[in-house]
Recover the amino acids of this structure.
């Protein structure tokens, strides 16, 4: 395997894992989905059943993106869809931060961060990964199916750890910038 094929497999595993975790965390239960619907309501400034429909469609599109990225024959389409979703998310977060909308991201269920500039940085990094995948994605499987499956499984685990570590790092920075008053 070449360096480009390793890079593609890494990006493919991480982004497929990330979109799978994102979709699953929104759809795994009534409370988790309800939290995401609340976020959509705050961000769209609309109420009613249409916000639940928008939230459901978004979570399903994330699941489809994960599957498309994971399958080598459709990886290029998955990376294109991921690029579009991440560009949309960057716009939504930027608008929320600039408009001082106080809302949770809702990206990853219970572990959601607040709409903030660090969220923009994370999404720009993920967009760069999606663009790299779009450029590197060939038509075909760069490694055997077994190793491809192992890489995708590892990607789900690594995406979850990456998200958890990122959230902890952002919380630590915010806590350091705004220490709690002494009692």
């Amino acid at each position: 395997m070449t360096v480009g094929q390793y890079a593609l497999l890494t990006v493919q595993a991480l982004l497929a894992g990330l979109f799978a975790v994102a979709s699953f965390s929104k759809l795994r239960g009534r409370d988790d989905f309800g939290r995401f619907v609340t976020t959509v309501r705050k961000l769209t400034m609309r109420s009613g059943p249409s916000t639940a429909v928008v939230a459901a469609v978004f979570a399903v599109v994330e699941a489809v993106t994960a599957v498309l990225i994971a399958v080598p024959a459709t990886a290029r389409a998955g990376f294109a869809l991921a690029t579009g979703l991440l560009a949309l998310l960057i716009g939504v977060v930027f608008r929320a931060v600039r408009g001082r909308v106080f809302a949770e991201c809702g990206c990853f269920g219970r572990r959601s961060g607040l709409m903030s500039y660090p969220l923009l940085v994370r999404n720009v990094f993920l967009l760069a990964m999606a663009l790299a995948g779009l450029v590197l994605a060939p038509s075909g499987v760069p490694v055997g199916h077994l190793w491809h499956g192992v890489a995708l499984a590892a990607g789900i685990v690594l995406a979850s750890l990456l998200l958890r570590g990122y959230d902890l790092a952002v919380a630590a920075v915010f806590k350091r910038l705004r220490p709690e008053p002494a009692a």
Q: What stands out?
A: The chain is about 75% helix and 0% strand.
